[in-house]
Each structure stands twice: as structure tokens, then as C-alpha cells.
Amino acid sequence: MLLRILAMRVRENELIEKIAAALGRRPRVSGELRLGIGDDAALFRPRAGREIILTCDWFLEGTHFFREKHPPDSVGWKCLARALSDIAAMGATPRCFLLSLALPASHTGRWLSEFLRGLSRASRKFACVLAGGDTTQGRGILIHIAAIGDAPTGRAVRRSGARPGDFVYVSGRLGEAELGLQILRGNRGFLNSKNPLLKKHLYPEPRLALGEWLAKKRLASAMMDLSDGLSSDLPRLCATNGVGALLESARIPQTRHSDVARKQGLDSLCLALHGGDDYELLFTVPPPKVRALPRTIQGVILTSIGKITRESKLALRNEDGREQALAARGWDPFR
Amino acid sequence: MLLRILAMRVRENELIEKIAAALGRRPRVSGELRLGIGDDAALFRPRAGREIILTCDWFLEGTHFFREKHPPDSVGWKCLARALSDIAAMGATPRCFLLSLALPASHTGRWLSEFLRGLSRASRKFACVLAGGDTTQGRGILIHIAAIGDAPTGRAVRRSGARPGDFVYVSGRLGEAELGLQILRGNRGFLNSKNPLLKKHLYPEPRLALGEWLAKKRLASAMMDLSDGLSSDLPRLCATNGVGALLESARIPQTRHSDVARKQGLDSLCLALHGGDDYELLFTVPPPKVRALPRTIQGVILTSIGKITRESKLALRNEDGREQALAARGWDPFR
């Protein structure tokens, strides 16, 4: 009965009002966004000489997050951050997004307010404004983000373009998000979301500045983001290009918290190879351009982890010089 | 155990392959879409002098359709058609869409093939190509469409712009989709989807040609599509403009199947006022421009059903001249 009363209390119009209030009530008519929420559709007018980048991502309870584990504020932050990671992977600039929410009536109060707080923080931080969306009632919490960005025409970096001999680079340290997830899962109830071990999992930062810089300097021959794990994502980049890769295990940048990982029964190299949710950039650089790459950009390390090979297989060379095949063991929702 | 085997059979990469094969394998590099599925994001380059229209819609099992009632082919058609109705309501032209699917492993075989057949038909019919999307496993069938269109800069028709004295118009006959839904719900199992009474519910046609024509001729001062029902949608248009409306009950275009409706215990006027899912256009026309409107456009009737009033209330005048308040009784997912 209480549920029914709650359901009666909230109407779709009110929900839209609440979202609009949290994320900017006035339809923005400045910049590229000419018409925002409140109409049938949004209007976006790109600046001359730029093309549009379109991407979207599910963020579903039970698959991408758990309501009893993930603070709603982190759910709000992360749903936008991971969609913008695809924009970063094109070397583009985020502009606006469409938020689609299906919520149980019981989650349209405090949960929604905290979710919107996290989403709003990410929206301001990454300069990506709400342009519209769709709301409905759901049995579970369903979130979908469609993100729109732009890039100078012809400058977006694609997955294709990698050539044998190109160096394979990653940004940041890999596997820390997976470590955070395992810590979260191993604990009962909520953990302090300020715990630095959880930051990479709860509040990832898309590598927007790095992506834009690489595109502007034309340094990356191919690029994608790491969302499912290096061992699952690198084969996709290789398949697009009909090439393979040979990685050096000693060069893969691992978590600095290997002691914590060990306590969890996890190996840092395995986390780095197969852990999902990193939202770091994976890119290839032709040999003559390697010198132009700094070691870090805005505090984010850049590491050459191997090379693109002509033969279309993926291999990992251990410190003792032996090579082994690298099997895709990253995240697959259908596994 | 069988479910587990099915789940193992399908991988995300294979699912994406299947979708790509059904909807156009090659990334289109002609026209506005410069890069389609298979990368982190799609690239869209609008023609000079045009701006982008962005909209999105949920299409969820249990809320928007029922797997035991709705043919998968109709689910595929309708999820795109209703998203494009928002593009029609701006007077814009559809260009491409992002398809996000969450499916139980049991529905990645025949159900998915039929769904894709319907979606592919709609995609060709409305000249709107697949640009990308996201797939994952779900307990229920979750569909989300983000649609992208364009319109000559400054020409898109908004919800704002209606003035007191403007005539209120609708396209087509209202309430037929709701009648179809009621027939479908009253029957056990599947009905023949070719039944003409079900067509409006199962295979709606967004009024794209009409919307574009109204925008081009600058005839509509405000426009939106009818998705939740006239009595729920008209108040939204009025609220945006700070106005009201007086409708003439005798003028509301009702279903020609009023006998069928009566057998279902339904009143044709009630269906027309409150029935959802019509995907007809609701628009206002300033008095001097009314003469330019034909009675039909491509077989779709256009009907003036009343006028915009200064006083911000909604009223319905019956045939005997008495007025009554028109309450919002259309579709609200939170009711």
C-alpha cells in the first residue's frame, strides 16, 4: 500500500522538473545547445568546421552497479563519466547528453536526489550539459546515457589506423577499478566512498584532456577506451586493423596497491590485463612520433606496453622472454 | 542449465555482428554519417546550414510492450517509429539512430532476428540508419533508441510559439492506437498482426512528411507529437506558452471503428481524448495561415479541433454548447 501511495505521489512531469532543477533549469540557448529539455527534442548547432560525435551506454542495476553497494552519488557520476570516455577515445570534446531514467517509485525521492547530485558534479566537471531524455517507471533502476560531442572535422581518432611496428600505449594504471570492485563486493553494505582504493571504480575520470591533445597533435594512429579490460579490448582494436600485438608483461602499468590486491587473493598483473571499468585510453603511436609523447599528461602516466605486429595474434612476453597467447578474459555481459 | 548454455552461446561481439548484418554491415561513409557501428562512437557531419535534432525514448517490456502479446517484428518497428515521431514534431528529417539493447540470452536467437527485421523495415522506410549503440544482458527486454535528425538552421518548430487565437490542429484520427491496445490486451496470445484494427498500435507511422512540410511552409506556430494522449499532451503545450485551449468535442477526429470500440465497452470520444500512442502531430496555426492548410496531406487528415485561449485552462465544449474542464487522463508511467 505504501508503495502505491509513493507511486501516486510522483508524476512524470514532477520527475522531469526535479531533474531539470538539479541539472540546469533554463533551456540553454548559448553555445552549441540551442534548445534543451522541455521540448520534443533538443537542438544542437555545431560550430563551423566541427563534426558531431555520438555514443551511448547502458548503466543498469545488477549489471553495472548494485543499489545496496554503490552510493547513488557515484552511480550519477559514473553513468556520465563512462559515456564520456567514448568521446575521449575519439579525441573529441563533450557537449551535451540525453539522460534516460527508469526508476521504481520508491527511488524517486532521496536516491534520485543523490544520484542527480553526482550526475550534476560530473556534468559541470566535464562541461557536458543535459539536453533532454526520457523518464518512466521501472521495476529496477535503469539508466541510459547518450552523449554528444564534437571534434574538428576529420580530426577524430578512430580504432582503425594502427600499423605493424606502431607502439601500443595506455594511460594510467590498469586494474585499479577492478580491485575497487572486488573490495566493494567483499564488504557488507556501503563502504566509505572516499576510500582512495574505491575512487577509480566509483568515480572514474574519462581521459578527455589526453584524448583531445593526442588528436590535436595527430600522435595516435588508432585509439579506443578500455572499458572491458585490456585482454578484451585490445583484440577489438587489432581485429579492426587486421593486425596483432606483442605486449611486454613487465611494462604493463599495475596498481600501486599490489599488497591490498594480494590480500584479496588477486594478482596485480591479472587485474591489469583482465580487469574492466578502467576508462583509460589505449592507443597506438607510429615510431617517429613516440619522441613527442611526454611521460605524463596532467598527472596521468603514459606507458608503452608493446608493439603492433603483422601477424594477427595477441601475445604477452614475460620477463624471462617467453611468449604466451593473451586470451580475452575481460568483461562480457553475456558470459 | 539450458539457460546457462544459451548464455554461453552468445557473446557480445556476436550480438553486435548480428545487429550489424541486419541493419547494414558496412560503416556508411556517405551522406551525413561518416563512421557507423564498430568504433567507440559514431561521426556525424551535418550539411552546411542545418542544425542537429536529438531525442530518445525508452521501449521497455512490461511498460511499453509485452513479450507474450507483441510480435517482435512490431517491437522493432515501433521502437524506432515512436522515437522518430519526436523528430517529426520538430519538423525535422531523421538521419541516424543509436540502438541500445539489453536482452535475456534466451531472446538473442529468433526473437532478436524478428525484432531486427521490423527495425530494419522501419529504418529503410524512414531513411534513418543505424549509427551505433550498446548491448548487454538483461533479465527483461530493454530497448532504448536515441534518434538524430537535422533541420535547416532556425526552422525547427518548437512547443513554444502558440498565441491566443491560434487554431489547434491534429493530424489523423485519435484513439485508434489505444483501441488496438485494448483489443490486444483482451485477447489471449498473439493476434494476427495484419489486423487493420491493430495497425495503428503495432506499426505507427511518424508524421515526418507532414512535420517537414509545416516547418518548410512556416505554418505551425507550435508543434508536438501526441504520445501520451491529447488530454495529457495539450496541457504541456499550453503550459509552455502560458495559455489555455478550448476544444470542440464534435470536431475531435475519432476512430471509424466506433462499433468495435463500443463492443469493447469503449467510447470513441474518450479514446480520442485520452488514448495514448497515437504519434499524430498536435500543432497550432495563426488565423491568417489557416487557409494554406489542405484537408489532407498524403492521405492524412488535418483537423482544426479548437482554439488557443488567453486564460490558462483547458476546456471542452460539447455539442450542446456547454463547456467542461478537460482533465489530463492520458498515459503517465508513474500513475
Task: Give an overview of the whole structure.
The structure is a homodimer of 335-residue chains. With 335 residues, the first copy, chain A, is an alpha+beta fold. Chain A has 2 domains: 2-152, PurM-like, N-terminal domain (60s Ribosomal Protein L30, Chain: A, 2-Layer Sandwich); 167-325, PurM-like C-terminal domain (Phosphoribosyl-aminoimidazole Synthetase, Chain A, domain 2). Chain A contains 10 helices and 14 strands. The first copy, chain A, has helices at 2-9, 12-23, 72-89, 110-125, 176-186, 196-202, 208-216, 230-241, 258-263, 268-274; strands at residues 33-35, 42-44, 50-60, 93-103, 129-137, 142-152, 167-171, 222-226, 244-248, 280-285, 296-297, 300-309, 314-317, 323-325. In chain A, strands 7, 8, 9, 10, 11, 12, 13 and 14 form an 8-stranded mixed beta sheet that branches. In chain A, strands 3-6-4-5 form a 4-stranded mixed beta sheet, covered by helices on one side. In chain A, strand 1 and strand 2 form a beta hairpin. In chain A, helix 5 crosses helix 6 (196-202). The longest helix of chain A is centred in the first third of the chain and has 18 residues, at 72-89. The first copy, chain A, is globular, with a radius of gyration of 21 Å. Chain A starts with a helix and ends in a 10-residue tail after the last strand. Mean pLDDT of chain A is 90; it is low at 1-9. At the A-B interface, helix 2, strand 2, strand 3, helix 3 and strand 4 of A face helix 2, strand 2, strand 3, helix 3 and strand 4 of B.
